[in-house]
Predict the structure of Rieske 2Fe-2S domain-containing protein.
Amino acid sequence: MTITQLPSTHEGERPDDVECGDLCRPQDLARSVDVSGLVDRKNGLVDRAIFTDRKLYEQELARVFATSWLFLGHIEQLKKPGDFFTTFMGEDPVIVTKDKSGRIRAYLNSCRHRGARVLRADYGATRAFTCTYHGWSYDLEGKLISVPNEEGYAKIDWDRDKWGLVEVAQLDTVYGLIFATWNPEAPPLDEQLGDMKYYMRAFLGRDPEGTTVVGGITKWVLKGNWKLAAEQFGTDWYHVNMSHASALMVLSPTGKGPKAEIANTPGRQYSDERGNGTGFPTHPKSRFDAQPVHEYYDYDELRERLGQAAVEGPMTTGHATVFPNFSYLPVNGSIRVWHPKGTEEMEIWSWTVLDKGMPEEVREAQRLYNLRTFGPSGIFEQDDGENWSEVQAISHGWRTNTVPLNYQMGLGSEREDGVYPGETSELYSDAAGRKFYARWAELMNTPAWHEKEAEQ
């Protein structure tokens, strides 16, 4: 494969040969870029332009984030009608709330009048969403209910019902997690997840009563493209022994690092055509690192309910990404979303998820373990952030961008192993990374639902 570096673009650049109508949107200002030459799944090669090119990023927002199921939060963040929290879908601000009937809803956090946010708080409870710019107010069902000086619209064909908040096209939950999409044509969430649900259940289905969240949401900003983080959590056990060598020494009983049989553990890596991926060691003594958590679980009962393969694999130490930007780590109860903030920066939002049945002392032990390892100053998290920032920092050079990145580990090792659902490969593999970028490229080269509507 010959990889061709894309021409540089600048934010706000408008090609001379593009004419816009009255409602021309930013994503309409430039023709789409064919990314076929940037991702070569067959040979395991990727062009660095996918991390740096601004035009690609804008296309990504319109074709990847606008069409995919995106993680919003946990159902435990909404206890009663009127409760809300705010988040993002791509770079679009979103309100998630419970309406009067108890139904979970999600709206674009933007007033239909002049576009300001109608909610500026991170979370809380309210009876209505009122814009502080001109006072337009919306109820929990998204309907516009109050317009100051509404008589000023008397001479036009004014229909207040047409100016409610923009609602997501679909919303669904799985294992207590809330997902939504702007795409009315998206397949159901259950179909998007497919066999990935088996691996999620090993983490989020350990307690028949479900999960809860503790400690709020931890948020921090890192230099680096969001895909670097999402890809690693889906496919990369390979970096652990090198990048986290000092952290592993700190956590080992001897202070010398893990034993060879642990450092070179066998394992499996699952991946699918929808871009989802997870990897995990497989060992009869697979266990939780926080001692109180390990002692809390009845492993025999879990083997009976979840199956031996799940308990000895994806239930404890592993990594996972649900395409495009939701990831989790079962061993410490960490779930996180990688919010894109341009090509060069991401905002990480992280929760600690625990079984509902855990007593307080076990919950606290897991919360602290999560913070110490994968909080913003965690001994593992700092290593990861440094790697992503390093990759991003040097990805703008001309010569650097003529050299493809190697994603060839494990090529040809993918198979149905008869133990774990779906297609798996060895633990040390780039299989899930290849499928992650193949799915990204597929969406980037496919006109989205909103583009089809614009042509009609």
